[in-house]
Write a structure and sequence with these properties.
The protein has helices spanning 17-27, 71-74, 188-196, 235-246, 260-270, 290-295, 340-358, 409-413; strands at residues 14-15, 34-37, 45-46, 50-51, 61-62, 66-69, 83-91, 105-109, 121-124, 153-156, 166-167, 178-180, 201-205, 209-215, 219-220, 231-232, 249-256, 276-280, 307-313, 315-316, 320-326, 331-336, 368-373, 379-380, 386-394, 397-400, 417-421, 427-428, 433-438. It is of the alpha/beta class and 440 residues long.
Length: 440
């Protein structure tokens, strides 16, 4: 889960974004692998190569509903001079005992059914009269309605080459081939392949369990009435959704009031189901910033090597941050600012990579690109801070969305990118090429 505790900080040190992220990733370690049933492994990362035990398809089978025949018996067939063959029975998918197709014979065959001995090719039913003697048909009658269709004669109006409409054994993958590489994230197609080759379980790194809690006595749950000075809790919903989007199993805890002892108790209760904890709010320098109050010294005596370090980062938004480990298992905890934009930007920069590191992924970060800034006027940025502005990205152009305020939730909802303004840049003119973090 985690290695050594994070680096102790000089309280006067202004951390860079890269230093803070480096410290987090040096502490977080991939979760231990476990064996899971296929559907439980969705979204998880394989820790070993998977080799094909059974070829796909495991036998030659028909790709069409039609008739299994010998090539010579339908050579030269036409509507004017059809080949007339004896129908010896049906071959259905899953049928154990197969008919033998001899000279002048045909067997009705269904899609996916094994090619019977003696047959060399498949003639689609649309190339025949379906045994009805009334010219070309568009399909077979259901056996339950017309069992006599599997007997008598069939007229074939077109020739077929050898192995036409036949899926060859091993044409998808062969026994001994590598089906999936270690490091593959298991989505629906990968799970389908595992099931198709007979694997009911796989060894993976599990999806991390992330507990998200917001703090603040002013926070009210959606659908409840607002009192004087109260606001709805949006951070815990945003970050829980973001954690799930990153691949985690996320649990949202209702807002915790501004009381240090209550917060400590809630965190201790939640540790049992957490591989990573995320708090939002209470990390600045106010008199009611209880996360900082509650966790500054937690674990120092009872759990040597653990504890939360609160820092100032050279970034905007998101200057106040906290990071460390807590509890007997040294569970990583990231304490994010409480302003909605600050907490979300901090999540994208720091929490998302931590989640993906726990999963054992190599690709930890959102994709980045270069884009041309389209703005009505120059954008200002504080000197010495790396600024992350919300933007809308399209066709190599990025447009700022909303202002620089860290409370602008509506603007955040319209953004699909972050515009990165380096620490040494104080003004960006329209038309400037900028770095962009793509959020979706």
């Amino acid at each position: 889960m985690s290695s050594a505790a994070p680096r102790p900080a000089d309280q006067d040190h202004l951390w860079s974004v890269d230093e803070h992220l480096e410290d987090i990733l040096a502490t977080v370690r991939p979760l231990e692998p476990i064996e899971l049933q296929l559907l439980d492994a969705q979204g998880c990362v394989l820790v070993e190569d998977v080799t094909v035990a059974v070829s796909l398809p495991p036998f030659d089978n028909s790709s069409m509903d039609g008739y299994a025949v010998r090539v010579a018996d339908v050579a030269g067939a036409s509507e004017e001079f059809p080949a007339v063959l004896d129908v010896v029975g049906d071959v259905a998918a899953g049928q154990a005992e197969l008919l033998h197709v001899g000279p002048g014979q045909a067997a009705r065959i269904m899609t996916g059914a094994p090619l019977p001995p003696g047959a060399e090719t498949v003639v689609p039913v649309e190339w025949t009269d379906g045994g009805l003697g009334e010219g070309p048909v568009t399909g077979m009658r259901a056996r339950a309605l017309a069992p006599e269709g599997a007997e008598g004669h069939v007229h074939v109006y077109r020739p077929a080459e050898a192995r036409a409409h036949v899926r060859a054994q091993g044409s998808d993958v062969r026994a001994g081939d590598r089906a999936l590489d270690a490091g593959t994230v298991l989505g629906p197609p990968q799970i389908a392949l595992l099931a198709a080759i007979g694997r009911g379980t796989v060894r993976v790194r599990p999806r991390p369990r992330v507990v998200v809690m917001s703090t603040g006595s002013e926070l009210v749950q959606p659908d409840e009435g607002l009192g004087t000075g109260q606001i709805y809790d949006s951070n815990s919903f945003a970050l829980t959704a973001a954690a799930r989007d990153a691949g985690a199993i996320a649990y949202r805890v209702g807002a915790v009031a501004d009381d240090a002892e209550t917060l400590r108790s809630t965190i201790e209760d939640q540790l049992v189901r957490a591989d990573l904890m995320v708090t939002t709010g209470g990390v600045s320098v106010g008199a009611y910033d209880v996360v900082k109050e509650a966790l500054t010294s937690v674990g120092d005596e009872d759990e040597p090597g653990s504890g939360i370090d609160f820092r100032k980062l050279a970034m905007q938004p998101g200057k106040p941050q906290g990071f460390g480990t807590i509890g007997p298992d040294h569970t990583p905890l990231l304490a994010l600012p409480g302003n909605p934009v600050s907490s979300y930007v901090s999540f994208e920069l720091f929490v998302r990579p931590a989640i993906r590191a726990l999963m054992g992924l190599d690709d930890l970060h959102r994709p980045r690109t270069r884009a041309t800034l389209a703005a009505d006027k120059a954008l200002s940025s504080p000197k010495g801070r790396r600024q992350f502005l919300r933007g809308s990205h399209s066709d190599g152009t990025v447009v700022p969305v909303g202002g620089a305020g860290s409370h602008l939730v509506a603007a955040l909802a319209q953004a699909d990118a972050l515009i990165v303004v380096p620490e040494d840049v104080e003004s960006l003119e329209p038309g400037t090429e900028v770095e962009v973090v793509l959020l979706g």
